Structure of Glutaredoxin:
Amino acid sequence: MTSTGRPIALTLYGRSWCHLCENMLHALQPLRQVFDFQVTLVDVDSAPELENRFGEWVPVLMMGDVELCHYHLDEPRVRTALAAASGIPPET
């Protein structure tokens, strides 16, 4: 949870038929034991500008305007970003 008391907002850009997108969403779940976050799923095929921006780079996990990882979950990087946003030491 952030200092505002709200969950940390992550955005997962992907496609409904993308197995890597499903894998990344699933891989995030264990981090919920330590961090309070919500994930908004955005289908890049829903808008031409998203398709142009992300193309075949999906899934892409972002926190605000910062890309945390793409294709596969970079757990150390995501953990560090969530820890910084929540004030929890990253090695937890």
User: Anything to note?
Assistant: Residues 8-86 form a domain with the Glutaredoxin fold (CATH 3.40.30.10). The chain has one domain: 8-86.
